[in-house]
């Protein structure tokens, strides 16, 4: 006889079984291949633990994860990430009690990647990627990966993008502003009559026109409405710009030129017309153009309403001043949130200080050290201090007007021709010139010429200047040193002028200049103090942009006015030099820093100079008459600090405006173990603010501003239902540039709950702070995309969504710049890697990705196609191993090392059926046991199943070759058991662990050769056990010649003895023509210690272990001895487990319908087998299933659907079933055969032509 030996089972499963290679096989269920190429039955699956056998819900386990190299086992189920706490599965919630995934369902698919003791999880539901870690206190934490870019976005941005015309939010905001302008303007023009009303008469035409307007509802009606507002505003304000006699509603003196002349009319203070000169202003085609016009209207209307001189309010104290202001905010189409607030405190302090200083100047009179003959009370500025930018500009306007009136009185010089200059009316002159005789000690000026009685010289005029030489220039006349500074005209006759006090000077004849207003002592000759046109008629808008947000213009305006004022105040004074101060001149012992000291210019004798302001006595002590500016008292009152301490005079320095840029980030720091990790978001868009630069605050150190830049409306980061940021701990950082700078430094770090802040840090200190990480061109830490697939290679995380592949920054998986991506031609279906090569899968192709981006955004990612026969069709099948990546293609398992790709399986047709539908493809998950060099894939064999039902197993210990990696499978067994439903796998502590469709967690336990019998109706700890049903079948062997029949005699087997075995051998002749069961091979050489059916008190039984089982079986003479092909199948034997001749007889009693109790008679010596459930008790040739083992002596059976049982006593029986706790290791087997002859015969008949068979 010839012999064919089978001792190599490393070929794997194949669909090509006729004929097949004899090291390959058609069935290998619940089998594994030993390194010596023998084949053995797998170990059993037990519940994970007595307390952690099921997740928190009885539904599919989406993902099992071995976290941090066997540190702990984690699971994802539906929306929950779960971990083990006190031995039980616990749902991990985020900081605000959100679940890990908000939109997940029980069917959602999860991908995972690990880095540096962090777990990252992505879902196909579109939820954000989350990360898991244990903090420094070993507390489990779950957070959304990365941090969002702070929401500094267009306030009016909608899903319609930048289409301004159709943006409904913009239009809505513009309508609200337009309606408020109309409402306030209408109320303003209707404010008339009894003081303190704004106007002397009602502007009825404008009122009626506004009253007729209909509230707009869309862009078209808004355009019409806005044009009407602009027209009616201009019509009203035009009245305030007319000459005094032409005004109907307003009272402002607009014409400061010559009396009766209209040529001197200038733009009145704060009364600004809306521009209609440009085409965009006329047409208003877009929403942005309308908004620009409305913003302008809002500004100039509020300035007009704040103009006290214009509105029946010359004293500027009326309660009606500033009424009817538009309060709806301006619309900034580039508005940002949060909104920066300029450092207005400095500006407001400054203009309010100017008001106080000017009023002090106007009120300052002799005979004290300074300044006027009498107070200029008509030109006090009486409106309230400024409180915002608009009222600040209005205050500057009033200062400008009244200063112009005040300086006019010092600027009225004599006409060289007539020595008189008419002012306002022909009969009232600014200056009168008379010649007369003065006697010391006498109040009367005698022999006056010309005749004073012919001129209107009202009482109250005073002597401003005198000269003994009428031919000398007026500017060289001496000051009044004959009469007291406050002496005025009391009366006059045709030849005399009587003064209010006696002369104290030298008796003689003099020419006198009499001033009518009695304010200044002489003409203002400083060009820096004199406005460029007559008085307040200088166009206020020449140095002012009407848009209030232009802080540079406001600062320039305030500083310019201060410059005029300062030049006027120190006119006739000379600055004391630093050397004189250091030498103690003028008695100044400790000069203050940044303060200029002034002293009066003394008489030079022949060339006289008399300033508009003089001390009481030029000859008085210079120490008591020393001037310095600004006034220390005023500064102390306004700013509550000393000039010497502050180091700078506000007035001396003027107002400096700089452009400051801010960027905000979110920052989250946490510790894992002893290592601290920091997440910082991508910086926000630039927040730009023009701000007044304030001096340092002496009370807070030299590097702190006295005033601050404010940021308001800062959004608080909150978690949506799918977000898990630690909002109570993370902080908001605000980085700022120095004035007009471009480099950002940390100016402020605040809690997330903070909605506004004040930045006091000056530039000197700022540049010493931490620099923003994006300085120097480093890209921002973008938020990871909501990816379907994630993978870590070389400390970079890759995220795949759709056709896009994103790369994180190196060593920072949470930071994904938006420009770090590569685009593929098809949707990505998986990610993996080999060594440092990222592998990207689509359903059609396999790619290797070359290149990376660096932190500066330089570099590239470029994909190279390495295989186009198939891609990865099962999204979560790729498994990374130490030799390469394995994945499911359209017809088998494939391998790639990043450069080549090929299939490793031969059961192509079978695998094609595993990935026919989307449900089957999505069911696949893979895992690699590195210790055992085995791959496992979850498989759903048919789509009609509700859950996966098998594992495909690949053993790469034997190498990776084309169509040649040995493979087997795990399942519930050949008895159609439906309780094996793995949905996710992992290897934990070298053990294969799976989660199933009902949330149960089971582990494969070495040395345990039974599976748990799943029963969802009871706790898993009460589950019974079932045999691991294994099945192995060879290919249909032709024994070297398919054309010859063979005669088969016997089968020789060899098994490794680990346990008792019970093996059923089947012979398959000619591919199912005759299938014969050969006699069972049973070995009871090994006894399970403690087996309940054995009397271990007897010395007959001893436990044995090890060895080899050698047995042969003859083929049956049932017509199957002769065949062309032969296949051999090995599987569990269904056989007698025990019988009454071993255990004694039983009594049968009824419990309930179809339920019977079987009680052993010979207890307690004999007991029912411990794992009885799953076995059958055969009574009278009928097998009744055991449903429960209630005690050592009693089991229950069911006769439902079987021959009915009856109450019986002392009857015989047998226990049948597949023996449990057995492991089979088939070392080899061989078949004895001989050739009989050729199966095919020569054709010797004739051929028919009628369609029948050949003869």
Main sheet makeup = 8 strands, antiparallel
Q: Strand pairing plus helix content: what structural class?
A: alpha+beta
Q: What best-fitting shape do the alpha-carbon axes yield?
A: rod-shaped
Distance between the termini: 36 Å
Query: Residue ranges: pLDDT <50 for 5 or more in a row?
Result: 154-165, 254-267, 314-318, 412-428, 533-539, 603-609, 615-651, 1096-1104, 1251-1255
Number of separate strands = 71
Give the percentage of residues in beta strands.
Answer: 25-35%
Percent helix: 10-25%
Mean pLDDT: 83
List the total number of helices.
16
Assembly status:
single chain
**Strands of the biggest beta sheet: in what spatial order?**
63-70-66-67-68-65-64-69
Rg measurement, Å: 52 Å
Describe this structure in words.
This protein is α+β, with helices and mostly antiparallel strands and 1255 residues long. The chain is 14% helix and 31% strand. It has an 8-stranded antiparallel sheet with strand order 63-70-66-67-68-65-64-69. Strands 1, 4, 5, 57, 60, 61 and 71 form a 7-stranded antiparallel sheet that branches. It starts with a strand and ends in a 17-residue tail after the last strand.
């Amino acid at each position: 006889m010839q012999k064919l030996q089978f001792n190599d089972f490393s070929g794997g499963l194949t669909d090509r079984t006729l004929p097949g290679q004899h090291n390959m096989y058609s069935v290998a269920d619940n089998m594994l291949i030993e390194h010596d190429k023998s084949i053995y039955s797998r170990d059993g699956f037990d519940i994970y633990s007595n307390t952690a056998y099921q997740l928190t819900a009885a539904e599919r386990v989406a993902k099992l994860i071995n976290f941090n190299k066997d540190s702990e086992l984690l699971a994802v189920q539906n929306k929950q990430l779960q971990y083990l706490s006190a031995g039980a599965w616990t749902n991990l919630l985020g900081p605000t009690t959100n679940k890990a995934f908000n939109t997940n369902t029980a069917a959602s698919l999860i991908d995972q990647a690990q880095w540096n003791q962090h777990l990252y999880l992505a879902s196909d539901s579109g939820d954000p990627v989350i990360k898991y870690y244990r903090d420094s206190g070993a507390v489990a934490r779950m957070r959304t990966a990365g941090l969002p870019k702070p929401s500094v976005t267009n306030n009016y941005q909608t899903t319609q993008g930048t289409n301004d015309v159709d943006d409904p939010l913009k239009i809505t905001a513009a309508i609200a502003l337009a309606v408020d302008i109309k409402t306030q303007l209408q109320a303003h023009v209707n404010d008339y009559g009894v003081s303190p009303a704004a106007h002397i008469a009602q502007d009825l035409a404008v009122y009626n026109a506004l009253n007729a307007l209909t509230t707009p509802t869309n862009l078209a009606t808004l355009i019409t409405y806005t044009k009407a507002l602009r027209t009616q505003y201009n019509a009203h304000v035009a009245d305030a710009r007319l000459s005094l006699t032409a005004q109907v509603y307003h009272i402002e003196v607009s014409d400061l030129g010559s009396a009766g002349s209209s040529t001197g009319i200038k733009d009145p203070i704060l009364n600004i017309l809306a521009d209609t000169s440009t085409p965009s202003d006329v047409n208003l085609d877009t929403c942005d153009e309308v908004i620009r016009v409305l913003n302008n209207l809002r500004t100039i209307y509020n300035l007009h309403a704040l103009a006290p001189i214009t509105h029946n309010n010359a004293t500027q104290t009326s309660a009606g001043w500033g009424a009817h202001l538009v309060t709806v905010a301006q619309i900034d189409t580039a508005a940002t949130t949060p909104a920066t607030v300029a450092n207005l405190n400095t500006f407001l302090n400054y203009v309010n200080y100017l008001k106080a200083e000017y009023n002090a100047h106007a009120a300052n009179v002799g005979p004290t050290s300074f300044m006027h003959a009498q107070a200029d009370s008509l030109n006090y500025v009486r409106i309230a201090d400024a409180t915002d930018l608009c009222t600040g500009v209005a205050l500057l306007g009033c200062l400008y007007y009244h200063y112009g009136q005040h300086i006019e009185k010092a600027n009225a010089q004599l006409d060289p021709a007539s020595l008189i200059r008419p002012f306002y009316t022909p009969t009232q002159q600014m200056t009168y010139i008379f010649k007369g005789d003065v006697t010391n000690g006498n109040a009367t000026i005698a022999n006056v010429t010309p005749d004073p009685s012919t001129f209107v010289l009202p009482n109250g005029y005073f002597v401003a200047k005198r000269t003994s030489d009428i031919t000398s220039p007026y500017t060289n006349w001496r000051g009044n040193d004959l009469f007291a500074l406050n002496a005025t005209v009391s009366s006059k006759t045709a030849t005399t002028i009587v003064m209010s006090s006696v002369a104290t000077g030298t008796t003689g004849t003099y020419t006198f200049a009499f001033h009518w207003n009695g304010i200044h002592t002489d003409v203002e000759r400083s060009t820096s103090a004199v406005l460029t046109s007559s008085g307040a008629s200088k166009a206020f808008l020449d140095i002012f942009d009407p848009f209030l947000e232009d802080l540079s213009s406001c600062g320039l305006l305030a500083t310019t006015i201060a410059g005029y004022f300062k030049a006027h105040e120190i006119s006739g004074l000379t600055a004391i030099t630093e050397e004189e101060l250091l030498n103690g001149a003028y008695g100044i012992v400790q000069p203050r820093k940044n303060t200029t000291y002034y002293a009066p210019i003394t008489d030079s004798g022949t060339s006289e100079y008399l300033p508009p302001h003089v001390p009481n006595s030029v000859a008085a002590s210079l120490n008591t008459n020393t001037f310095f500016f600004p006034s220390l008292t005023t500064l102390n009152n306004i700013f509550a600090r000393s000039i010497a301490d502050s180091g700078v005079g506000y007035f001396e320095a003027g107002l400096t405006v700089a452009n400051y840029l801010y960027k905000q980030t979110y920052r989250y720091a946490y510790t894992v173990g002893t290592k601290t990790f920091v997440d910082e978001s991508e910086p926000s868009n630039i927040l730009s603010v023009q701000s007044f630069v304030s001096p340092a605050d002496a009370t807070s150190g030299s590097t702190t501003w006295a005033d601050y830049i404010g940021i308001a409306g800062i959004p608080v980061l909150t978690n949506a239902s799918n977000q898990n940021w630690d909002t109570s701990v993370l902080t908001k950082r605000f980085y700022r540039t120095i004035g007009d700078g471009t480099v950002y430094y940390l100016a402020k770090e605040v809690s997330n709950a903070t909605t506004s802040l004040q930045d006091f840090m000056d530039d000197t200190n700022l540049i010493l702070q931490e620099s923003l990480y994006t300085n120097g061109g480093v890209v921002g830490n973008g938020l990871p995309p909501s990816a379907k697939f994630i993978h870590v290679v070389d400390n970079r995380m890759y995220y795949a969504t759709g056709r896009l592949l994103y790369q994180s920054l190196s060593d920072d998986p949470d930071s994904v710049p938006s420009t770090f991506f590569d685009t593929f031609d098809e949707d990505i279906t998986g990610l993996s890697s080999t060594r440092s090569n990222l592998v990207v899968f689509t359903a059609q192709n396999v790619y290797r990705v070359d290149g990376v981006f660096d932190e500066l955004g330089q570099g590239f990612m470029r994909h190279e196609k390495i295989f186009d026969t198939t891609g990865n069709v099962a999204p979560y099948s790729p498994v990374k191993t130490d030799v390469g990546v394995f994945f499911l293609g359209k017809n088998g398992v494939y391998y790639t090392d990043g450069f080549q790709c090929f299939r490793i399986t031969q059961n192509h047709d079978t695998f094609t059926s595993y990935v026919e539908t989307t449900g089957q493809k999505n069911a696949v998950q893979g895992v690699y046991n590195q210790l055992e060099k085995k791959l496992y894939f979850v498989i759903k064999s048919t789509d009609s199943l509700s859950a996966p039902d098998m594992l495909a197993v690949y053993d790469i210990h034997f190498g990776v070759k084309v169509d040649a990696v040995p493979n087997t499978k795990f399942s519930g067994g050949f008895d159609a058991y439906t309780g094996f439903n793995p949905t996710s796998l992992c290897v934990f502590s070298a053990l294969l662990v799976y989660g199933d469709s009902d949330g149960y967690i089971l582990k494969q336990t070495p040395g345990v050769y039974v599976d748990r019998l799943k029963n969802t109706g009871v706790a898993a700890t009460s589950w019974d056990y079932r045999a691991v049903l294994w099945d192995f079948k060879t290919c249909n062997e032709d024994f070297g010649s398919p054309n010859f029949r063979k005669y088969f005699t016997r089968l020789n087997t060899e098994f490794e003895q680990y346990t008792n075995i019970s093996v059923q051998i089947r012979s398959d002749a000619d591919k199912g023509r005759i299938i014969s069961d050969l006699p069972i091979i049973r070995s009871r050489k090994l006894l399970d210690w403690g087996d309940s059916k054995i009397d271990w008190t007897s010395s007959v039984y001893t436990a044995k272990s090890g060895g080899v089982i050698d047995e042969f079986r003859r083929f049956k003479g049932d017509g199957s001895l002769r065949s062309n092909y032969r296949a051999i199948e090995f599987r569990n034997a269904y056989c007698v487990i025990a019988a009454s001749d071993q255990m004694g007889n039983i009594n049968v009693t009824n419990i309930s319908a179809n339920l019977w109790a079987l009680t052993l008679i010979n207890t307690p010596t004999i007991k029912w087998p411990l794992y009885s459930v799953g076995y059958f008790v055969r009574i009278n040739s009928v097998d009744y299933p055991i449903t429960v083992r209630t005690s050592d002596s009693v089991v229950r059976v069911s006769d439902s659907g079987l021959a009915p049982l009856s109450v019986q006593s002392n009857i015989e029986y047998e226990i049948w079933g597949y023996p449990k706790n057995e492991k089979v290791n088939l070392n080899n087997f061989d078949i004895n055969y001989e050739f009989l002859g050729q199966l095919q015969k020569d054709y010797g008949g004739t051929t028919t032509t009628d369609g029948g068979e050949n003869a």
